[in-house]
Automatic annotation (TrEMBL), chain A:
GO molecular function term, any single one: DNA binding
Residue ranges of every copy of the BHLH domain listed in the record: 220-270
Chain positions covered by the region annotation Disordered: 157-211
Localization of this protein: Nucleus
GO CC annotation, single: nucleus
UniProt similarity note: Belongs to the multicopper oxidase family.
UniProt entry tagged with the keyword Nucleus: yes
Species classification: Eukaryota, Viridiplantae, Streptophyta, Embryophyta, Tracheophyta
Protein name: Transcription factor HBI1
Native source organism of the sequence: Hibiscus syriacus (Rose of Sharon)
SUPFAM superfamilies in UniProt: Cupredoxins (SSF49503), HLH, helix-loop-helix DNA-binding domain (SSF47459)
Listed Gene3D superfamilies: Cupredoxins - blue copper proteins, Helix-loop-helix DNA-binding domain
From TrEMBL, chain B:
GO CC terms, sorted: nucleus
Keyword Transcription included in the entry's annotation: yes
Taxonomy, superkingdom: Eukaryota
Annotated keywords: Nucleus, Transcription, Transcription regulation
Gene source species: Hibiscus syriacus (Rose of Sharon)
Domain IBH1-like N-terminal: 11-77
Subcellular location: Nucleus
CDD domains: bHLH_AtIBH1_like
Official protein name in the record: IBH1-like N-terminal domain-containing protein
GO biological process, one term: regulation of DNA-templated transcription
Entry annotated with the keyword Transcription: yes
Pfam families on file: IBH1_N
Length: 550, 158
């Protein structure tokens, strides 16, 4: 069957895609007839049955233009993934380097692989002899979809090393396979995008070595290190995509670093929620026995809605009913900030909980700003603090994480920071993933701007860069896009002070919170409800209207 | 409580729920609820948190590295007085592909990856690939945990 394809392929009239398709068909025929595993069959004998069962699985010969040049495409079907036995068999072929940049066809569910055999290929010559057409054996690793539309050039290949085999190699551990199965449904239809990104990624590779006859994509380095690198990068980007689906509200993020930030924040928020919930359970008095509730809870669980509403929902639940029509913008503006807000809340709370002795007295609900309380003067008894914490912040912080909002928490939705009398407050306002910078204005105080930065605030690195020598003193500061600003001030002005974005419309949308200088601890709980009412009534007003409110 | 949907008894959620409720009953049986002093509450909170983590880790068994690491941490904490056996730790390490974390990939994940490692239990000993896998599974388990605990808390606060 060698004759048909090479002639076809040599016709340069065909586009690459057509060539690929023709090759695919040809390979399918080829595969039916030949036993490709003459030498490798010693390893794969048990799995040939499975392998042959694949409809589209075949190793494509890309040796179009040059006849006996080698291919690097491999088409694999989905069923290939279900063969855990296969992967173990191919563990032995560890020497064969692979490169699995996606290559494939825009149509259909076939998975194509682009493989480059290194010169250190361990395929024995006998196997090559068994091949009908000069093509190389490759090991497919992960399954991806891509399109080969962009890939044009290929190099000549040594005939000895080439063979026509269908290999369903699984280099990785079974765990990866299992997770691939999970991801399989997610890796669909992104073929062209993936290919283009890969091309861009690979175009920056180093120049090819002349004497190495290895199938490689255009502009790619072909030594084993870069191939392995590429493999790794593919794997990592695959997992990042999966995580992107898992973490809510990060569909718009494209950068890896931003994605990682999101993941980190999400994991942190989840952990803090667990802490909060266990705190809640610790104080709850069960009226019924837990055992009896086993069944009940179990039955309740599946009926409850377990979907997390998008992060942007959170500000809406802040009973800003007049602003529900600003949904999309609100989501962008406050939602992401909300996520950050949770982290800050939780971070300080965690510090609070784990250090009962030096617990900061302040209790806060922060849903639109990232506030990090560092009380210089240690607070009083832990019990009062705990009371404050439990009653006041936790509900708010939990809700701010973007989880399902509960209506009974609304009264605790007040966004407030309570500072200790004459304590030095160091807060950090975060503006993440928002398309513009926000000028924040704090009433009642002039603060020092000690630091600023982009992306997530990192506890280790951020404070180190603080300017504590001559920070500017002002009462309004701009927070950079996707970044943070750290301010410090001494909370010596008792009262409830408004803090908001100075862009008027944003204030209406909810980008604000309250900083309260607490003068009597016992009032903190009432504080919350008062402030929530205050917020509710304030919402319709513009910033100008409430400048003199308090 | 007529519920037409019956939970899959083998699912992660149900496993975690049963374990967690069992642990909660044990904790409640230890001390009377009437004591509402903050120290007592704090101690109970601690126990509940540990119980939640333990239940989650046990529900996952040893299938995932993070669960193994978490179980090891919990066990070592409870056996603080005794000399810690290093064999378990080594077995935990062995099962994960350990690579150097500095400059391992050209993608520049450095700082965030190290943060992620701190968050995910057992993350220090993993390369980026496995770390992302573990993170995905960990996130899934955490969300389950939060859901279940939330339901329980809501039920009892009513």
């Amino acid at each position: 069957m060698n004759r048909a394809l090479p002639e076809m392929l040599q016709s340069s009239d065909m586009t690459v895609l057509e060539r690929q398709r023709a090759r695919l068909k040809w390979q399918a025929e080829q595969f039916q007839q030949q036993n490709y595993f003459s030498e490798l069959s010693g390893v794969f004998s048990s799995q040939t049955g499975h392998v042959q069962g694949f409809q589209q699985g075949c190793l494509m010969s890309r040796g179009g233009a040059r006849g006996d040049s080698v291919l690097s495409d491999m088409a694999m079907t989905r069923q290939l993934k279900h063969e855990p036995g296969l992967e173990t068999a191919w563990q032995g072929l560890g020497k064969v380097d692979m490169e699995f940049a996606p290559c494939g066809y825009g149509s259909g569910p076939s998975f194509d692989m682009n493989h480059a055999i290194s010169r250190t290929s361990s395929c024995p010559p006998a196997v090559a002899a068994a091949a009908a057409v000069g093509s190389k054996a490759v090991k497919g690793n992960s399954l991806k979809m891509g399109s080969t539309v962009g890939r044009v050039s290929f190099k000549k290949r040594k005939v000895e090393k080439s063979q026509n085999t269908e290999v369903v190699a699984e280099d990785e551990s079974k765990r990866i396979k299992a997770s691939e199965e999970e991801r399989e449904s997610k890796i669909t239809g992104s073929s062209t995008h993936r290919n283009s990104t890969d091309k861009k990624e690979n175009s920056g590779d180093t120049s090819k070595l002349d004497y190495i006859h290895v199938r490689a994509r255009r502009g790619q380095a072909t030594d084993s290190h870069s191939l392995a690198e590429r493999v790794r990068r593919e794997k990592i980007s695959e997992r990042m995509k999966y995580l992107q689906d898992l973490v809510p509200g990060c569909n718009k993020i494209t950068g890896k670093a931003g994605m990682l930030d999101e993941i980190i924040n999400y994991v942190q928020s989840l952990q803090r929620q667990v802490e909060f919930l266990s705190m809640k359970l610790a104080t709850v008095n069960p009226s019924l026995d837990f055992n009896i509730e086993n069944l009940y809870v179990k039955e309740v669980l599946p009926s409850c809605t377990t979907n997390f509403p998008p992060v942007g929902m959170a500000p809406e639940m802040e009973n800003h009913s007049p602003y529900l029509q600003f949904n999309p913008i609100q989501q962008v503006v406050s939602g992401c900030g909300m996520e950050m807000g949770t982290n800050s809340c939780d971070m300080a709370l965690r510090r609070t909980i784990s250090a009962p002795v030096s617990i900061p007295e302040a209790s806060f609900l922060d849903t639109s700003c990232f506030t990090d309380m560092q009380q210089i003067q240690p607070s009083a008894a832990w019990d009062v603090e705990l009371q404050n914490l439990y009653n006041v912040e936790f509900p708010g912080s939990i809700e701010a994480s973007g989880l399902k909002m509960e209506m009974e928490m609304e009264m605790h939705q007040a966004k407030q920071d309570c500072f200790q009398l004459n304590g030095v407050v160091s807060t950090k306002d975060v503006n993440l993933l928002i398309v513009e910078s926000h000028p924040f204005h704090l009433h009642g105080y002039n603060f020092f701007v000690v630091g600023t930065g982009i992306r997530n605030f990192k506890q280790a690195k951020g404070p180190a860069k603080y300017n504590l020598v001559d920070p500017p003193k002002r009462n309004m500061d701009g927070i950079p896009t996707g970044g943070w600003t750290a301010i410090r001030f001494r909370a010596d002005n008792p009262g409830v002070w408004f803090k908001h974005c100075h862009l008027e419309v944003h204030t209406g949308w909810g980008l604000k919170n309250i900083c309260g200088r607490e003068w009597r601890r016992t009032q903190s709980i009432h504080f919350a409800s008062n402030v929530s009412c205050f917020l509710y009534s304030v919402a319709p007003y513009t910033a100008k209207g409430i400048h003199g409110f308090l | 409580m007529n519920n037409p949907h019956h939970m899959n008894p083998r699912s992660l959620k149900s496993r975690f729920t049963t374990r967690f409720l069992r642990a909660l009953t044990k904790i409640r049986a230890q001390k009377p609820i009437s004591s509402s002093s903050p120290t007592e509450i704090f101690r109970r909170y601690r126990k509940i948190k540990v119980a939640a983590d333990k239940s989650m880790a046990y529900s996952v068994r040893s299938r995932k590295t993070w669960s193994r690491a978490m179980l090891w941490k919990l066990r070592s904490r409870s056996h603080r007085r005794r000399p810690v056996k290093t064999k378990f730790r080594q077995s935990v390490m062995k099962n994960t592909k350990t690579t150097t974390t500095t400059g391992e990939d050209g993608v520049g994940f450095g700082v965030e990856a190290s943060e992620l490692r701190e968050l995910v239990p057992g993350g220090e000993a993993m390369d980026l690939c496995n770390l992302l896998d573990e993170t995905a599974h960990y996130i899934k388990c955490l969300t389950t945990q939060v859901q279940v605990m939330k339901k329980i808390a809501d039920f009892y606060s009513l």
